[in-house]
Amino acid sequence: MIHIKSDAEIEVMRKSCHLAAEVLTMIEPFVKPGVTTNELNDICHEYILAHNAIPAPLNYRGFPKSICSSVNDEICHGIPSERKLRNGDIVNLDITTILNKYHGDTNRTFFVGTPRKRAQRLVETTLEAQQRAIETVRPGAHLGDIGAAIQKYVEARGYSVVREFCGHGIGLNFHEEPQVLHFGTVGEGLELKKGMTFTIEPMINEGKADLKILDDKWTAVTLDGSNSAQFEHTLWVTDTGCEVLTRTNGTAF
Ligand code: MF3
Ligand code: CO
Ligand code: CO
Questions:
Q1: How would residue 250 be classed by pLDDT, with cut points 50, 70 and 90?
Q2: How many A from CA of 135 to the centre of ligand 3?
């Protein structure tokens, strides 16, 4: 079942989403060569608690940490550890907050130190694909429009779209219906209606789309070892288009 949110629910959810977005802005200056992903986890954890919210990943289906941190060939759901980030790495930090029971879910891929040309092109392409997808969202559009916008742009640039993970409805639940695929055909799939809230979070691989899950049961990595990038926003369908709830005035993302 798809939960259509009232304007009053959106107001509550907007606060959670803004907090999640602020966490990304807050953590950015700490993403430097030499920092461990555990240190980034702990800073985010404390910040979220200090703002009267809960980090949704912690203990979610057994996930052991408060954020996901996915480095280089890690696609998503990387577990923060004593791994030190190195110059030239790319790292995705995925933040999900629960504030007044509502979830806000957002992630960005950051450059550690000086970006390599190849990594820069991959990350820029992933961001642009996400933004193009967001622009398709309005009442009467279809979920397939979102997937098609991403797939078309990304594949034309020689990259591939991960199939095993998708965007999702969100609200009182971390993950609810519908599933938002990052590939598809214009005009196909569910028709969008005002009050729907969901994420768009394409995972794009430099090489092939195939993945495997590491022995930690969480970390998804590319099978061919190529880099993978991701950007995520939570949005809601308005009367005329959409509002990106995890995009604050301060961020260009
Ligand atoms: N935040 C992720 C998403 O975008 C889900 C993380 S699940 C966790 O849907 F358990 F790994 F935290
Ligand atoms: Co999500
Ligand atoms: Co997320």
A1: low
A2: 20
